[in-house]
Amino acid sequence: MHFDVDGDDFHLDLLFFHVEQLRYIVIELKTGKFKPDRIGQLQFYIALVNDRLRRDAHAPTVGILVCGSSKDHTVYYALNQAGSPMAVSTCTYETLPASEQAALPSENDLSATLDWVQPPAL
User: Fold this and answer.
1) How far apart are CA 53 and CA 17, in angstroms?
2) Distance between CA atoms of residues 99 and 105, nearest Å
3) 77-122: per-residue pLDDT in tens?
4) Is 117 exposed, middle or buried (CB count within 10 Å of its CB: 0-12, 13-18, 19+)?
5) Quick count: other Cβ atoms within 10 Å of Cβ 76?
6) CA dist list (Å): 5 to 2, 8, 15, 82, 95
7) Global pTM?
8) Tell me: the pLDDT tens digits for 14-66?
9) Residue ranges in 4-120 assigned as alpha helix (H)
10) Can you give the residue ranges of every domain in the chain?
């Protein structure tokens, strides 16, 4: 999802709308370990969705950060003062069962696809 803010381009990794809960869900995908500054980026994207898409009848927007690994205390402090509902989840191919890994595209296939769909640099 693309947003233009004061002439700068911002791209959310994934944006969903939960029909039953009437809320937007912003998902950011990051490789590597969790870093607290990624919460600021997620809060920025939640604020964009709230300002540009969310209606009064909608439930609060939820943000989810999926990263390769995290440490509980670091995540706790990063989320401690967050004003929006947010969560941090870890996910790596190595932690999936072999049958699930076989059913999903490889990390290299996903990277190649993402490289192909990225907008050209200006």
Assistant:
1) 10
2) 12
3) 666 666 666 656 665 555 555 665 665 566 666 566 555 555 555 5
4) exposed
5) 10
6) 10, 5, 17, 22, 37
7) 0.67
8) 899 999 989 999 988 887 788 878 888 888 999 999 999 999 999 989 888 88
9) 37-52, 72-79, 98-103, 107-117
10) 2-95
Q: Which CATH architecture has domain 2-95?
A: 3-Layer(aba) Sandwich (3.40)
Phi, psi of 56 (to 5 degrees): -60, -30
49: its two tokens: 């969705």
Query: Token match 């002439």: residue?
Result: 7
| Beta-strand pair 62-67/23-29 | parallel
